[in-house]
Amino acid sequence: MELKNIGVIGAGAMGSGIAQVSAVAGYDVVLQDIYSDALDRAKDTIEKSLGKMVSKGKMAKTDMGIALDRIKFTSVLEEACKDADLVVEAVFEDLELKQKMFKELETLCKPEAILGSNTSALPITEIASVTNRGDKIIGIHFMNPVPLMKGVEIIRGQLTSDETTEIALGYVKRLGKEPVMAVDFAGFIVSRLLDVLLNETVKLVQEGNRPEDIDKAMELCAGHPMGPCKLLDLVGAEIAMHGMETMERDFGDRYKPHPLLKKRVLAGLLGRKTGRGFYEY
Ligand code: CAA
């Protein structure tokens, strides 16, 4: 099946990035969110990101205009589903919410449409289990910031077909990104490793290390492009906490989120999205 129309559900940092890279690659995109202010923010973020690429000579101004014209913004789920060959779901990391969404997608999308989830940690088989379309459901896990990160995890659920996998791989490659196959257990590869690092980082802070020193250590001594405190602020503390909780549920206590991580989430110190995490934005 040739993909032409992409529906993206959820206009947060991930959904807007997915809509952006899909439009740049030539797909027609409908980005849906129930909140109109999220759609406004997404439009602004996409314009700024593409503008940056134009100013750096990575994209022609006319191509920016063409890409922007390819994205429609809507609060109506049906609009994002009715013509979609592929839907990428990027709503909040909550199993019940995602299952409810996939039930709706199943009824609103054409039978041959592929349904992808951008979940960072929830097993795809579990999301797909509430539908009768397991063969067409697959994990397509983009990394933050989507326009810059080259890798995308592809996760096959228990029932995902070879055809669905081939189509998802083709989509990711057309975006100019590199797909990486990961096995369908909580956290896949990236969150399984990164969330543990981020949880451990919170312990280091509690023990008295300064975020600046932790970041400096990991950037200069371990060659990380961005220290873990900056990374936790980028990803969002609640995302890392949710990843740990999912892994704790499936693999046991050693994945327990640190109490200080939970406290920081409760206090709204999520990072860039709330303007304050380990640093201020
Ligand atoms: N769109 C367009 N341009 C952007 C941009 C965006 N969204 N974000 C940043 N840029 C630009 C910057 O403005 C900058 O431009 P200039 O060079 O003109 O200043 C350029 O890209 C590079 O940015 P930085 O100066 O911040 O430099 P950097 O070399 O540190 O690169 C980075 C940034 C690619 C994010 C790098 O720090 C990095 O790889 N960090 C690690 C990120 C990571 O690990 N992501 C995965 C997190 S896990 C995840 O996402 C999964 C999940 O589900 C939670």
Q: Beta fraction of the residues?
A: 5-15%
Which range best describes the helical content: under 10%, 10-25%, 25-40%, 40-55%, 55-70% or over 70%?
Answer: 40-55%
Q: Quick one: overall form?
A: globular
Unreliable stretches (pLDDT < 50, length at least 5) are none
The CATH class of the largest domain, by name, is Alpha Beta
Contiguous helical run count? 12
Strand and helix map with partners:
Layout: E1 5-9, H1 13-24, E2 28-32, H2 36-55, H3 61-69, E3 71-74, H4 77-81, E4 86-89, H5 95-108, E5 114-117, H6 124-128, E6 137-141, E7 151-156, H7 162-174, E8 178-182, H8 190-206, H9 211-220, H10 228-235, H11 237-251, H12 259-266
Parallel strand pairs: 1-2, 1-4, 2-3, 4-5, 5-6, 7-8
Antiparallel strand pairs: 6-7
Polypeptide structure, described:
With 281 residues, the protein is α/β, with parallel strands linked by helices. The chain folds into 2 domains: 5-182, 3-Layer(aba) Sandwich (Rossmann fold); 190-266, N-(1-d-carboxylethyl)-l-norvaline Dehydrogenase, domain 2. 48% of the residues lie in helices and 14% in strands. The chain has an 8-stranded mixed β-sheet, with helices on both faces. The site of acetoacetyl-coenzyme A (CAA) has 19 residues, from helix 2, helix 8 and helix 10. Acetoacetyl-coenzyme A binds at residues 49, 52-53, 56, 120, 143-145, 147-149, 190-191, 194, 225-226, 231, 235, 239.
Keywords, please?
alpha/beta, N-(1-d-carboxylethyl)-l-norvaline Dehydrogenase, domain 2, 281 residues, Rossmann fold, 2 domains, globular, 14% strand
